């Protein structure tokens, strides 16, 4: 009996995470707290600010999704994609492609505009205008897509500053500047509006394969996006940034009822 007790006392105490026995137990058992951080977006132009807040629906104006609502929508879509909703996965893919292509388009135009300002005339140096009182917008999104939308608006904001500077010094005609800014803003709104096409249906890939009533309801609700590609349904094609697919037991997204969103191609700014 005494021998057995001695053997028990001589055995080293098991440490969490299979830590090296030389580590103190208190140190190994302690866990860091949750990570907290902060981010913000500095806005210099009214054109960019309107893309942050969007516009409410009225009798004479269509609803426009801004960055804030875009982040809310992407939180729900991300959550449903993690629950194996193929339509949510497909929406992530389309939003990601739209954000990336629009950002490339805006940055190419910005670089061309800045190059024009640098080569205006020998001996003339033109500095791009900036706001003396930029508006700081705090950013707190549940996943990367909200921040990707913020990067896009930041790029657009810089483009607006460059184009308005070029117009002020006589290097860009007003008509050309208005057209360029309108086209770029429309591309940003389109990327954000794609998030409003997705509908919460609780469908899964298994439902789609088995043609369940939920699958039929989902196909009807998502008809505006067209036929679901087979590669997406099989899970072979997903967004570069996408959640790990878990089970249907994962937490449900917040699906508070929102105003209906019209076709993104029809959304125009005031």
Written overview of the protein:
By secondary structure, the chain is mostly helical. The chain has one domain. The chain has helices at 2-10, 25-29, 46-53, 67-82, 86-118, 144-168, 174-193, 205-210, 213-221, 230-233, and strands at residues 39-43, 135-139. It has a two-stranded antiparallel ribbon with strand order 1-2. It is globular, with a radius of gyration of 26 Å. Mean pLDDT is 86; it is low at 257-270.
What value does the Rg take, in angstroms? 26 Å
Largest sheet: 2 strands, antiparallel
Instruction: Show unreliable segments.
Output: 257-270
Mean pLDDT: 86
- Number of continuous helical runs: 10
Number of domains: 1
Pfam family, one: AcaB
Protein name: Conjugal transfer protein
Biased composition (Basic and acidic residues): 1-10
Organism: Candidatus Tenderia electrophaga
Quick rundown:
With 270 residues, the protein is mainly alpha-helical. Helices cover 50% and strands 4% of the residues.
Chart the SSEs and their pairings:
Blueprint lengths: L1 H9 L14 H5 L9 E5 L2 H8 L13 H16 L3 H33 L16 E5 L4 H25 L5 H20 L11 H6 L2 H9 L8 H4 L37
Antiparallel strand pairs: 1-2
Helix pairs in contact: 3-6, 4-5, 4-6, 5-6, 5-7, 6-7
List keywords for this structure.
single chain; 270 residues; mainly alpha; two-stranded antiparallel ribbon; 2 strands; globular; disordered C terminus
């Amino acid at each position: 009996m005494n021998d057995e007790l001695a053997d028990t006392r001589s055995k080293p105490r098991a440490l969490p995470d299979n830590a090296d026995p030389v580590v103190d137990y208190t140190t190994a058992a302690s866990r860091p707290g949750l990570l907290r951080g902060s981010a913000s977006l500095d806005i210099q132009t009214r054109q960019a600010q309107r893309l942050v807040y969007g516009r409410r629906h009225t009798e004479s104006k269509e609803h426009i999704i801004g960055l804030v609502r875009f982040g809310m929508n992407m939180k729900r879509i991300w959550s449903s994609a993690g629950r194996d909703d193929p339509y949510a996965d497909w929406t992530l893919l389309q939003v990601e492609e739209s954000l990336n292509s629009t950002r490339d388009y805006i940055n190419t135009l910005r670089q061309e505009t800045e190059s024009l300002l640098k080569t205006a005339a020998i001996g003339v140096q033109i500095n791009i205008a900036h706001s003396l009182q930029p508006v700081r917008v705090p950013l707190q999104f549940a996943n990367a897509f909200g921040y990707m939308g913020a990067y896009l608006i930041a790029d657009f904001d810089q483009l607006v500053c460059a184009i308005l500077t070029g117009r002020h010094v006589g290097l860009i005609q007003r008509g050309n500047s208005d057209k360029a800014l309108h086209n770029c803003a429309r591309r940003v709104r389109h990327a954000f509006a794609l998030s409003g096409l997705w509908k919460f249906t609780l469908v899964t890939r298994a439902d789609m394969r088995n043609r369940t009533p939920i699958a039929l309801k989902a196909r009807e609700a998502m008809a505006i996006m067209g036929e679901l590609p087979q590669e997406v349904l099989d899970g072979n094609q997903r967004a570069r940034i996408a959640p790990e697919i878990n089970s249907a037991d994962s937490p449900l997204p917040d699906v508070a009822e929102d105003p209906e969103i019209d076709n993104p191609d029809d959304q125009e700014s005031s």
